[in-house]
């Protein structure tokens, strides 16, 4: 789960990270009063969307005015005007794709005097099996580009879980950032604060780009991007409250309400599968036969008829779906339950695209019988390969 920049900053501030003062504007009417809460002389107006690259982005609507999603203002009135211009408009950045994202919240914060822009992030390094810091002197830009062009400017510092951030770890990171004096002292404190926040709140990723050094050699978190491990959210009700549903795909929200693991993709073959491994294999084989999956969907091991029905409805509500492949291995889950779920769903929502069903495992005969005895126009398949070939053929005609 992702949160907005202003939420991430508030959270990091509570851990002692140096963050500027700011105000959040949710509707145009309050923009001016909110902007006046900040003393100036420089205001920065920042569109809040769950995507980076806002500064270099552009708005689709000409009424949003010149410039991207991060703009400077010299007065509270001007800041308010910029906030009003951005609200409700569509911001396109390298991370949003062509369709862009609608701006529902604008953050206005104190402008900082920037001497240097640095990069600092924390993530779970799966290869090392540890939390690691990534530090670079090349902040403010795309870190992937830095990694490609000047990899020597990026340092990775893993943290031993039993020891946490030791003096040595903090020192290495601060050196990687080339901080000195006050900035180095503040940098070490920041590293400890970030590690504490990361582990206590079960973050998946925390990225500060840029972390800045100001002319007085103090540092400040200027941008913050945080995402959380979805499997740990149940123990962080405070974090769950930060969720902004308008940033999420409506189908994914519906799926999560029914405890289905669903990720929408760009292809045209909808997949209903049980088990993450089988779901991945199904997507792979669809690609292998020359088509693209429209989604990842794992209905889980012990799915009920209702859950299967809901899953089917979610797949068919995706306008990109031109064919459906149901691929179930009945272990705990029984094939006849799946078959009944599919029938119930088709009765409810109708079926306007080809459907291939491959069942295997517990009660497979009963399941096939239910499908075959129905008046549904279902293509049945015997194994994964057969199923994939049949659905690709049905879609491509
Ligand atoms: P994004 O990464 O989405 O483009 P950032 O928050 O990183 O958004 O802002 C882009 C750039 O705007 C920063 O690299 C920095 O140069 C400038 N900027 C952002 N916030 C401030 C601020 N409070 N004061 C001064 N400059 C800022
Ligand atoms: Mg940034």
UniProtKB/TrEMBL annotation:
<dbReference type="InterPro" id="IPR013815">
    <property type="entry name" value="ATP_grasp_subdomain_1"/>
</dbReference>
<dbReference type="InterPro" id="IPR013650">
    <property type="entry name" value="ATP-grasp_succ-CoA_synth-type"/>
</dbReference>
<feature type="binding site">
    <location>
        <position position="46"/>
    </location>
    <ligand>
        <name>ATP</name>
    </ligand>
</feature>
<dbReference type="InterPro" id="IPR005809">
    <property type="entry name" value="Succ_CoA_ligase-like_bsu"/>
</dbReference>
<dbReference type="Pfam" id="PF08442">
    <property type="entry name" value="ATP-grasp_2"/>
</dbReference>
<comment type="subunit">
    <text>Heterotetramer of two alpha and two beta subunits.</text>
</comment>
<dbReference type="Pfam" id="PF00549">
    <property type="entry name" value="Ligase_CoA"/>
</dbReference>
<comment type="pathway">
    <text>Carbohydrate metabolism; tricarboxylic acid cycle; succinate from succinyl-CoA (ligase route): step 1/1.</text>
</comment>
<feature type="binding site">
    <location>
        <position position="117"/>
    </location>
    <ligand>
        <name>ATP</name>
    </ligand>
</feature>
<keyword id="KW-0479">Metal-binding</keyword>
<feature type="binding site">
    <location>
        <position position="209"/>
    </location>
    <ligand>
        <name>Mg(2+)</name>
    </ligand>
</feature>
<dbReference type="InterPro" id="IPR005811">
    <property type="entry name" value="SUCC_ACL_C"/>
</dbReference>
<feature type="domain" description="ATP-grasp">
    <location>
        <begin position="9"/>
        <end position="241"/>
    </location>
</feature>
<protein>
    <recommendedName>
        <fullName>Succinate--CoA ligase [ADP-forming] subunit beta</fullName>
        <ecNumber>6.2.1.5</ecNumber>
    </recommendedName>
</protein>
<feature type="binding site">
    <location>
        <position position="274"/>
    </location>
    <ligand>
        <name>substrate</name>
    </ligand>
</feature>
<dbReference type="InterPro" id="IPR016102">
    <property type="entry name" value="Succinyl-CoA_synth-like"/>
</dbReference>
<comment type="similarity">
    <text>Belongs to the succinate/malate CoA ligase beta subunit family.</text>
</comment>
<comment type="function">
    <text>Succinyl-CoA synthetase functions in the citric acid cycle (TCA), coupling the hydrolysis of succinyl-CoA to the synthesis of either ATP or GTP and thus represents the only step of substrate-level phosphorylation in the TCA. The beta subunit provides nucleotide specificity of the enzyme and binds the substrate succinate, while the binding sites for coenzyme A and phosphate are found in the alpha subunit.</text>
</comment>
<feature type="binding site">
    <location>
        <position position="223"/>
    </location>
    <ligand>
        <name>Mg(2+)</name>
    </ligand>
</feature>
<keyword id="KW-0460">Magnesium</keyword>
<feature type="binding site">
    <location>
        <begin position="53"/>
        <end position="55"/>
    </location>
    <ligand>
        <name>ATP</name>
    </ligand>
</feature>
<feature type="binding site">
    <location>
        <begin position="331"/>
        <end position="333"/>
    </location>
    <ligand>
        <name>substrate</name>
    </ligand>
</feature>
<dbReference type="GO" id="GO:0004775">
    <property type="term" value="F:succinate-CoA ligase (ADP-forming) activity"/>
</dbReference>
<keyword id="KW-0067">ATP-binding</keyword>
<keyword id="KW-0547">Nucleotide-binding</keyword>
<dbReference type="InterPro" id="IPR011761">
    <property type="entry name" value="ATP-grasp"/>
</dbReference>
<keyword id="KW-0816">Tricarboxylic acid cycle</keyword>
<feature type="binding site">
    <location>
        <position position="109"/>
    </location>
    <ligand>
        <name>ATP</name>
    </ligand>
</feature>
<feature type="binding site">
    <location>
        <position position="112"/>
    </location>
    <ligand>
        <name>ATP</name>
    </ligand>
</feature>
<keyword id="KW-0436">Ligase</keyword>
<dbReference type="InterPro" id="IPR017866">
    <property type="entry name" value="Succ-CoA_synthase_bsu_CS"/>
</dbReference>
């Amino acid at each position: 789960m992702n949160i907005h920049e202003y939420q991430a900053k508030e959270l990091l501030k509570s851990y002692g990270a140096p963050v500027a003062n700011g105000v959040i504007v949710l509707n145009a009417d309050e923009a001016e009063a909110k902007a006046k809460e900040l003393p100036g002389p420089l205001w920065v107006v920042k569109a809040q969307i769950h995507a980076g690259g806002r500064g270099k982005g552009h708005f689709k609507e000409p009424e949003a005015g010149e410039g991207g999603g991060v703009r400077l203002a010299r007065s509270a009135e001007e800041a308010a005007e910029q906030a009003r211009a951005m609200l409700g408009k569509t911001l396109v950045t390298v991370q949003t794709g062509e369709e862009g994202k609608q701006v529902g919240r604008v953050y206005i914060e104190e402008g900082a005097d920037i001497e240097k822009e640095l990069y600092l992030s924390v993530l779970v390094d799966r290869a090392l099996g540890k939390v690691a810091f990534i530090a670079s002197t090349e902040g403010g830009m795309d870190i992937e580009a830095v990694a490609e062009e000047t990899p020597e400017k990026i340092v990775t510092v893993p943290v031993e879980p039993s020891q946490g951030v030791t003096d040595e770890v903090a020192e290495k990171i601060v050196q990687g950032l080339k901080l000195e004096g006050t900035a180095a002292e503040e940098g070490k404190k920041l590293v400890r604060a970030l590690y504490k926040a990361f582990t206590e709140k079960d973050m998946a990723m925390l990225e500060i780009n840029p972390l800045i050094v100001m002319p007085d050699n103090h540092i400040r978190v200027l941008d913050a991007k945080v995402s959380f491990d979805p499997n740990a959210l149940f123990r962080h009700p405070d974090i769950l409250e930060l969720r902004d549903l308008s940033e999420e795909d409506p189908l994914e929200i519906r799926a999560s309400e029914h405890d289905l693991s669903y990720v929408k993709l760009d292809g045209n073959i909808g997949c209903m599968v049980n088990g993450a491994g089988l779901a991945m294999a199904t997507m792979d084989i669809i690609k292998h036969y020359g088509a693209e999956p429209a989604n990842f969907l794992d209905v889980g091991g012990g799915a009920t008829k209702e859950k299967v029905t809901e899953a089917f409805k979610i797949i068919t509500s995706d306008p990109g779906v031109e064919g459906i492949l149901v691929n179930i291995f009945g272990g705990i889950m029984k094939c006849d339950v799946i078959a009944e779920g599919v029938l119930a769903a088709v009765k409810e929502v109708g079926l306007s695209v080809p459907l291939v069903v491959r069942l295997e495992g517990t009660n497979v005969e009963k399941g096939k019988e239910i499908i075959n005895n129905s008046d549904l126009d279902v293509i049945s398949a015997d194994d994964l390969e057969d199923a994939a070939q049949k659905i690709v053929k049905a879609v491509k005609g």
